[in-house]
User: Fold these one by one.
Assistant:
Number 1:
Amino acid sequence: MKQLIGVTGGIASGKSNVCNVIRSLGYKVIDLDEITHNLYKKGNSIYNAILDTFGLDYLDNNLEIDRLKLGKYIFQNEKAKEKLNSITHPLILAKMKEEIDNLNERIIFLDIPLLFEAKLEYLCDKIICVYLEESLQVKRLMERDHIDYDYAMLKIHSQMDLNIKKDKADYVIHSKGSLDETEALVKTIINEIEGE
């Protein structure tokens, strides 16, 4: 029987590092962002649905979805965000389930940034939250995305508070330390999961 382990966190909280460690240990990680990115490409299901719903205003010069422009609009418009989610979530979920079904591993990790926001807890046997204090999260996000403080805070606060996610999770990885420290925490958690 497959065990599905959700990995979640906040934007710029160190979740990608944790998932890279999990992969380096030989486990399969299904990346929901990667699935989403592919479905946004020209001719795929989300691409077509966005054109039908939002029109041509959100295409770039290559006729691909301008995700930065669409993202800025969505962050400031709750109704548009709900509409986009109602279109994209079923398509993304169907693709993720297809990928799970195609794997034979006993333990599969699901990299789902908005796991709690999208109410996908039911998919997971256990959930790992990658946690970081907001002050460090803002700093990392500003450096990573080359954005100002206000936009960084807007992006962070568009997600569920990391303290709430931490309380809802089965395991917490505090990612403020070095990569070696993060790797040690990941190994400890995986050993526990493997022992169940």
Number 2:
Amino acid sequence: MKLITGLGNPDKKHENTRHNTGFMCIDVIRDQFLYQKDICVTEWKKEKTFNSKLSFLKHGSRIVAIFQKPLTYMNNSGEAVQKLIKKYEIEDLRDNFILIHDDLDIELGKFKIQIGKSPKGHNGVNDVIQKLKTDEFMTVRVGIESRQNRKIEGEDFVLMNFSADERLVLDEVMEDIARALLAEILL
């Protein structure tokens, strides 16, 4: 069984911000499975026990993957991830855990899929690594850097909404990510 976690902030005011790219991307990936033969994808459901919204990908009665949106704020995502991994006894995180997040070090329209990559100051990723006591899992780093004015601090920029043009670029790259991960999730 795989766990695919998208990072973001749970409240409405952050819904379309750059910092919620992980949430947006996991929706696109999950949607790839909605019309697959012999696959069932459950609706998103809030699970208080895991402080998360969860959706399950099933093949018959067997759970193949869990999609997770932690309902903690970004910087406290690790606890929600840790609880799910423990409850569902997800082992070999290198092969069975995928963390998707925004990355200010990568240009908008690009992404990187890596294992064991340092979070470079991304507090949400840092918290997951600290709680799991490892960085040996797959990360999908989705580029959000598009500042025309480099005087805007990163902490402020990630909490700003995407422009309509930026969102078109993001939508395209999220489709590319979904295609890249499709086979990985079904392995």
Number 3:
Amino acid sequence: MPERPERVGVFGGTFDPIHNGHIAVSVNVKHALALDRVLLVVANRPWQKVGWRVLTDARTRLAIVEAAVEGIEGVEASSIEIDRGGDSYMADTLEDLANALSAQLYLVLGTDVAAELDTWRRVEVIRDLATLALVDRPGSVAPALPGWRVESVVVPQLAIASTDLRSRAGAGLPLDGLVPPAAVREILDRGLYAESG
């Protein structure tokens, strides 16, 4: 009997910084869909955020994600978009993963982000290569996605936003309980977000 292909979740983001909400989504999607692993894909240059604000260096964000997921079985940081360089497009990432792995790919998205899929580059490639692992987000309704393979996943709702965390850090407020401890240490050691607003 042939081995089943690996089941891999792909959870892309800026992760500036990663927080406990990201971790909760990762471990709950992995469990709910019986995935072998979930890759937290750190964006190199997120095209949707260019010009909105200054981003923390991609390799620094990756190091913080690596610290955050250490010891969490089946949840891994991925540098695939950083290694490729340039703007980060999920279609390119899924193509690279499909070429490198013999795997069923599950793209982890919040319902709020899924509602904007039609604005993404080469969205038909994404639809062909991955099943959507759609996660409920407070205040948003799952969009109709005809032609897509969709698995809905309910996860604990943690109202944490990276924007708020940068502001907290800039104000000298603690991140403990909101960000994994190892990631908090990395943020403090690197002096990140000290002047964020």
Number 4:
Amino acid sequence: MWKEPFARDGVAVIVHPASSLTEISLVQLRGILLGRVQEQNGVVLTVVSREDGSGTRAALENIALDDQDTTLNAVVVPSSEAMVDYVGATPSAIGYVSTRYLDDRVRVLPVEGVTPTETAIANGSYPLWRQLYLASSGDPKGSGDPTGEARQFAQWLLRGGGLVEGAGR
């Protein structure tokens, strides 16, 4: 198996635009997502989480929750689009999504005082990011690198041809 890192993806903490939350620390986020903190600024929070098996959920739980699961009381949504829909429609909601899915229906909270910009994700100053890898079966008799069309695609992608805007590198 051949793999090569090709981009970084930020995991943005999102709230409803009317939320009184303006930023969050990793300690605060951990307390909220684990269900230890259920109220903030007089509002009972609704934790929204992705389904088990989501790469975004796995990254968030690994980085922010030391591989613990989010609270059992969380509303579980099946996709990034559903996360943005739910949080954007629920004033008490707090959730997370890949930065690629952000839009004006939700507000992003800076984490540890850092907003998940492309630069902050790329240089690692934003704390919630994950490395994305390109993977392929490799040539078992040679270098282990991909061959044929897989090799052409990998070369194109790694030259920057396939990077998604906002994913960082």
